[in-house]
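Complex record, two chains
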Amino acid sequence: MDMKKVNSLDFTEFVSVFRNVVERCPLVAAAVWSHRPFSGLEDLENHFFAFIDALPKSGQEGILRCHPDLAGRDVLMGRLSEESRREQSHAGLTSLKTHDRLRLLHLNQEYRKRFGFPFVVAALLSDRATVFQELARRLHCQPESELRTALDEVKKIIHLRLIDLLDSHYFGVE
Amino acid sequence: MDMKKVNSLDFTEFVSVFRNVVERCPLVAAAVWSHRPFSGLEDLENHFFAFIDALPKSGQEGILRCHPDLAGRDVLMGRLSEESRREQSHAGLTSLKTHDRLRLLHLNQEYRKRFGFPFVVAALLSDRATVFQELARRLHCQPESELRTALDEVKKIIHLRLIDLLDSHYFGVE
């Protein structure tokens, strides 16, 4: 889909296409539509970012809380969004051995308890080992800086999902 | 569920219970959890309202765009949320005769075209005749005041859905 097509979508169509650019938050796509026409990928994604940046802290935490745990219950129950399933699968998180899955479960629980939101990482840019390392490292960060780190990961996910949805050729991505 | 129970929920449980208090916007419940403990229904619903009030105009329009058309395609396709199905059914909108359905379809289209979001009304407080009347009337309102009217309807829906989810006895509602 090129930007001319994107700019021609009515809001129902737009939300249908971009609903999960922010995981389980179709509201963000529904808000971004107000800012059409978009001049390109960067313009479009900046509106997704701006929505998140403008939220109060509770809203930013809310964005994170809409994400599933990595290799968590939603994976086991087959309740992941298609995008999340693909990303977690890429990082080898949908096929963990029991030992690793239990370790990740434990680390996720510690993380959720400390910060009040799940551990979010752009899994498409990670592999299994990096995910474990990062989770163990970020678990000890300060809450304020960890919120910023986690939102930066959300923005990487947004960027990658938008590229995937849009005509990659049009944006010079091969 | 009483408020003690509500205040004991972790964020996954809280979002699971309150995810559709704002139609198709689990983000709002996920954000509201940050403000626990809640002293009662009024406190809880005020946090839902405050989230919406703090959004920029595009975000408030986004909240409305997450709502289905009354008696629209989602009704025909069986894609309504359980809450919305019950509310629209109460107002007699899920069993319209063809003539009325086409008239509503036409009015909805006019409304969406004029305001850039779907017509939202607290259907539990309405009947079929009132919905038609209100839609025909609001279609001619100014965009700024219509946005405020529509958000007031969202707040009525939030109030009714919260009462439904919480222990009515606890709040003295019979």
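Note: Chain A has ten helices and no strands.
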